[in-house]
Amino acid sequence: MSGADTIGRRAVLAGGIALAASAAARPAIAAQEEYVATRRLKAPDGEYRSRSWHNAPPEVYCYAGIRYARAERFCAPVAVRRAEQMTGGGFGPACPQRGDRYRPQSEDCLFLNVWTPGIEKAAKRPVMVYFHGGAYSAGSVTDPVNDGAKLAARGDVVVVTVNHRLNAFGYLYLARLDPRFPDSGNAGQLDLIAALQWIERNIAAFGGDPGNVTVFGQSGGGAKIATLMAMPQAKSLFHKAITMSGQQVTASGPLNATKRAQAFLAKLGQGVDPATAPVEQLVAALSATDPILGGSVYMGPVLDMKHLTRHPFWPDAAPQSLGIPMMLGNTVMETRAFYAPDGKQLAGLDFDNLAARIAPEMRIDIHPEWVVGEFRARYPKTEPLELFHRIVTAARSWRGQVEEAEARARAGAPAFVYQLDFEDAKHTDDIGLSFGTMPDPTPAQQAMSDRVMDAFVRFAHTGDPGWPAYDLAKRQTMIFDTASRVENDPRQWERELFARVPYIQPGT
After folding, report:
1. Whether residue 228 is found in the same domain as residue 112
2. Confidence at 368, pLDDT banded by 50, 70, 90
3. Considering the domain boundaries, does residue 320 fall inside one?
4. How far apart are CA 392 and CA 358, in angstroms?
5. What is the pLDDT of residue 122?
6. Strand 326-331 to strand 415-420: parallel, antiparallel, or no bridges (unpaired)?
7. What does the buried/exposed string (b/e) look like for 161-175 if buried means 16 or more CB atoms within 10 Å of the residue's CB?
8. Residue at which a domain ends, from 217, 244, 271
9. Shared-domain flag, residues 380 and 494
10. Residue 125 domain-assigned?
11. pLDDT tens digit string along 187-199?
12. 212 and 115 in one domain?
């Protein structure tokens, strides 16, 4: 589709959506006062303009809606080396996806945003690049929780957030079915590489240091980072990594990825060319049943032996990443974000049906009645709901982080582990804490946010967040809580229980 025309027609709408989406993080302001203090700068790719939010820290400037690449459907991106930016101060659109949480949406979604405390080239501030979550299928950095102003101001860092292609647009593996699209299974990853290449070329003009780039991401964003750590084309483009509740131990195998592509194409319709089908038809086909897992079809990075030639953390940590300091974190009750109280998993939950309820959710083949018995003996006063979340979190959501931390430790590579216990943290709770964007925080929440931001920023500056690296002798872990502390091997009993069963990442 015609990207320039689409963006031109939607620029005003994008600006309005960005402002409306940011209302949760910023007080309402009159339309004529929405931006102040425009600054222009010249970078190698050309001139960019800033729009500083009226009530943002006054020293921080936001350069929103910067195009970093273009791409034809299912093809590798092509870098844009001539400055191009959304008009009206708006963010770029989100990739097309199911649901309408993020608007506007467009295939032409390869845009990034920069927040900087100053544009002096000599400053050479650390650069923190955020990749959003959404399990490779959904999400957008236009979410107000990803506003980089407070993090940039507090840490004296340059913050970059990136949108890229998702779901079928970024990860539909057609290479074994259609020779036109050899890059399709990892197109979304190639977008991220193109964004990092834009940063390498231009970020010095924004006051950032292209030799000190930290990538960080939550959930799917963390998984994207773990995958980049094994992609040769990403080598040397970033220098530190933080993954937040997001791991990628193994990628999709090409045969399973092909089966998923076939299921998607069958849902799309016989004789329909996915290269020319309307966007809406491709999005609708995402409801195809996954032939491996059941549920909606899964898409993610593929071991295509072209762009990804080995699994990120199996059988070991990718050698190209061992010189990159890495921080890995999870929340103590991840799955509290996954299940509705009145959903089939939790409605009427009791000790009689607990084993049956956890069986499909653990995503591993282990005796569920035995697991429940062991957990009830270990936590005799714990109610079924808490046991459900404790069991499924440890079995499904935490295992990948353990695998990656252990692989790094075996390789003798820097790895720092944290666990967010604060307020029985669930999946996504560390995003607002790390950006300083929690709406109406309590004093305790603000203090926790400051603590997390300071650790992330210190890591970006130095490669050391302020606690010992994880090793196999002690398994040192920072527990972020009202009283933060380092513990050796927290949840050791849960880790050892599930270590009886080999870890196979869901979807791969």
Report:
1. yes
2. very high
3. no
4. 7
5. 84
6. parallel
7. bbbbbbbbbbbbbbb
8. 244
9. yes
10. yes
11. 999 999 999 999 9
12. yes
Q: Are residues 156 and 33 in the same domain?
A: yes
Q: Which residue has the tokens 């869901």?
A: 506
Pick the last residue of a domain from 187, 216, 244.
244
Residue type present at position 412 = G
- Is residue 304 within 8 Å of 255, Cβ to Cβ? no
- In this structure, are 337 and 239 located in the same domain? no
More confident residue, 391 or 13: 391
Q: Give the C-alpha separation, 181 to 71, whole Å.
A: 12
Residue 392 pLDDT: 97
What pTM did the predictor assign?
Answer: 0.91
User: Would you place residue 506 in the very low, low, confident or very high pLDDT band (cuts 50, 70, 90)?
Assistant: confident
Q: What are the structure tokens assigned to 285, written together?
A: 């086909």
Of 143, 139, 144, 147, nearest to 164 by C-alpha is: 139
User: Is 323 inside a domain boundary?
Assistant: no
DSSP codes joined into one string, 389-417: HHHHIIIIISHHHHHHHHHHHHHT--EEE
- What domain range includes position 419? 332-436+465-508
Give the β-pairing of 78-79 and 69-70: antiparallel
User: Number of folded domains in the chain?
Assistant: 2
Residue with token string 């955020």: 130
Asked if pLDDT for residue 479 goes beyond 50, the answer is yes
For residue 162, give the 3-state DSSP assignment.
strand
- What is the chain's percent helix, strand, coil content, to nearest 5? 35, 15, 45
Query: Rounded to whole angstroms, how far apart are CA atoms 209 and 27?
Result: 32
Distance CA 137, CA 97 (A): 7
pLDDT at 2 over 50: no
Dihedral angle, C-alpha 420, 162, 340, 495, nearest 10 °: -40
State the number of CA atoms in the 13 A half-sphere of 249 facing the CB: 24
| 14: CATH | 3.40.50.1820
**DSSP 8-state class, residue 297:** P
Task: Give 58's pLDDT tier (boundaries 50, 70, 90).
Answer: low
pLDDT score recorded for residue 185: 98
pLDDT for position 405: 98
- Under the banding of pLDDT at 50, 70 and 90, the label for residue 56 is low
Helix, coil or strand: residue 209: strand
- Phi-psi map region of 176: left, alpha, beta (phi>0 left; psi -120 to 50 alpha): alpha
* Residues facing residue 476 across a β-bridge: 488
- Given a cut of 90, whether residue 486 has pLDDT beyond it is yes
Q: Are residues 362 and 222 part of one domain?
A: no
* Percent of residues, the chain, with pLDDT higher than 90: 86
Confirm if 145 and 180 have CB atoms less than 8 A apart. Answer: no
pLDDT for the residue 20: 31
Q: Does 299 map to a domain?
A: no
Lowest mean pLDDT, pick from 17-26, 114-123, 132-141: 17-26
User: Residue 117 and residue 97: Cα distance in Å, rounded?
Assistant: 33
Helix count (H) and strand count (E) of the chain? 14, 16
